[in-house]
Description:
alpha/beta; Glutamyl-tRNA Synthetase, domain 3; CATH 2.40.240.10; seven-stranded mixed β-sheet; elongated; binds adenosine-5'-triphosphate; binds magnesium ion
Amino acid sequence: MNTERNDAPAASNFIRNIIDDDNRSGKWSQRVETRFPPEPNGYLHIGHAKSICLNFGVARSYGGVCHLRFDDTNPEKESVEYVDSIIDAVRWLGFEWQKDGTEHLYYASDYYDKLYEFAELLIERGKAYVDSQSAEEMRANRGSATEVGTPSPFRERSVQENLDLFRRMKAGEFKEGEHVLRAKIDMSSPNFNMRDPVLYRIRFAHHYRTGDKWCVYPMYDYTHCISDALENITHSLCTLEFEDHRPLYDWILNELAEAGIFTRPLPQQIEFSRLNLTYAITSKRKLLQLVNEGHVDGWDDPRMPTIVGVRRRGFTPESIQLFCERIGVTKVDSWIDMSVFEGALRDDLDEKAPRIAAVLDPLKLVIDNFPEGLSEPCSAPVHPHHPEQGVREFPISRELWIERDDFTETPPKGYFRLFPGNRVRLRYGYVIECTGAEKDENGNVVAVHCNYFPDSKSGTEGANNYKVKGNIHWVSAAAACPAEVRIYDRLFKEPQPDAGGRDFLEALNPDSKRVVNAYLEPGAHGALPEQRYQFERHGYFVADRVDSKPGKPVFNRIVSLRDSWGKPA
Length: 569
Ligand code: ATP
Ligand code: MG
């Protein structure tokens, strides 16, 4: 991983300002402990990457630690498969959760005993009660934006009765929905989250970690703040939709501090804006729908904005970190353009990716005056800005593959490539002059013919005697490495596929995947899975990590060389 970039001073943001203030005042004795708390109910996406880069990045730059915590309190939706994929994704992005020999990997479900114990404590302190209204009654009594809520008829139950009912809820004596445990806060609060929120509900569900031990499960809002406090989190960073939940976060921790469970200072919740990326979807539910309905080839389809998807597409962890640094962290929800994401990838790979020639839409070129059977070595820099990386060698011979659109019989104005009578340079090879083309019975061009100038080879003295305006790439037909190349494009045609509540499936781009049989420079024979190249004139490509085998490579287009979306080809 690129440590230089990670050690560089990160763009300042308002969260750093808060931490700097805390460090100045000594609030946490210079300690910085954050957490990334995914629910293991799906694969992580690019929006989560923002949260990961922020939480782990902030902890790292202050010499602290970021915990990886599975927020697993919805037994029906969670699984080990998702846990494993999340662990992999965070590692791949370049982060770890060890510090001084301690693994900071946690599961909210490990806190079930404590959470239950604290709930009884809240009951004993008159801060929680068992409500036996139906779900509909509770909803109706919640009030509205203009009307205060109506207290439940069960709100004034005695501590003894509440304790008894709550214990019997836990013992499995009641049906789902018969009772819930609620915090006793304020039914007339302007903030709905403070109108006696539910803390526990009955669910007869199997949990992937605790099995059938529990039939009462804690709610997210109750679990989250307590998990933070149990883990000594200092700054609890979450997305803006939790802003209205912050008073509840503080209320619960404050009550437990009053009860002597936690000491102050208590963890501080700080909200930031979520990432919305154009031409992408960042809702786990909708991503699941794309997979389940077969609109894509799985969670790791290279068009998916999941971490496994962008990894398979060929994005680097460094480019994702760079992207997150560039977009920064603010309090204002906004859309980030996909071109910013792709730009970070180009900037990262331009420096790193070795170059090769690749013909994606092959047309035969025959050099009629080139001796049959002769193979002449040519060479080119591995990387134009890094001569120290040396040169790559490939042969030129009588028959080559060139790009179909590098030839035309009737050139439009300004076309400098091959047409009868015109001269171009075969990049790193010779200057040729086009003599004509062969066609099949339907009039399709099947081969182009030319002659070469033997004294025009690139890198020799004679090369400068030839002035040509066009320069095309090619590979030797005899030596080329044939390869399947998957040309990926944006998954959606619309920048905001789900804007205004419309059906995002209607915005699917029908041309988001095209498979071609290409010819690559012979060096590509040895490409290892996940090896990335710049295919000259085409863009950045990666050997597919699942399907590519050395000797039989399969490539994915990561991104074209320039942002050409929406412009005519
Ligand atoms: P769902 O889509 O199912 O509502 P979620 O996006 O809330 O799920 P979690 O697993 O709860 O997913 O998220 C883990 C963390 O990632 C949370 O702290 C959440 O705020 C953050 N996160 C999720 N989506 C984004 C996003 N688009 N931008 C920034 N952070 C995000
Ligand atoms: Mg969530």
